[in-house]
Design goal:
The protein has 133 residues and is an alpha+beta fold. The strands form two sheets. A three-stranded antiparallel β-sheet has the order 1-2-3, with no helix packed on it. A three-stranded antiparallel β-sheet has the order 4-5-6, with helices on one face. It is built from two helices and six strands; from the N terminus they run ββββββαα. It has one domain (2-117). The termini are far apart.
Length: 133
């Protein structure tokens, strides 16, 4: 979370691949809710296929940029020399790290479980994937 001129938004990504997210689906705004399930799924370098979900709802795509200086690092919060600019405004109750790409169904299952576990007010999350022929 980042605050700029009394407005909160989500900053995600690294380098020129980062995005600032200001609008969210209903009951899926990590900047206004006290508690939320927020997940960032880093997929392919230099491709706009990395995903952000909140409370079981798709929020945005973003591009992952590699770091030539230290390509095997991961951080939550600031990686900048201007740390206060990117300090997190929220706390983390649950953190999980997965190896490999999660399917949409797995993402929704995880969000549904965590929303129920932490009693987060959310819209119904369906883990069924419909295929239209």
């Amino acid at each position: 979370m980042h605050k700029n001129k009394n407005k909160f938004y989500l900053a995600i990504g690294y380098g020129s691949g980062h995005v600032f997210i200001e609008t969210f689906p209903s009951k899926a705004s990590p900047v206004t809710l006290n508690f939320s399930v927020l997940s960032a799924h880093y997929n392919t370098l230099q491709v706009n296929d990395s995903l952000v979900y909140c409370n079981g709802k798709y929020v945005a795509n973003f591009t992952v940029e590699s770091s030539a200086v230290n390509p095997n690092t991961f951080s939550i919060g600031s990686i900048s020399t201007n740390a206060p600019l990117y300090d997190s405004q929220k706390q983390i109750a649950h953190f999980s790290l997965h190896h490999g790409r999660l399917s949409r169904k797995d993402i929704l299952r995880m969000h549904k479980y965590l929303c129920e576990r932490y009693r987060i007010d959310h819209d119904p999350i369906s883990t069924y994937i419909y295929i239209y022929i």
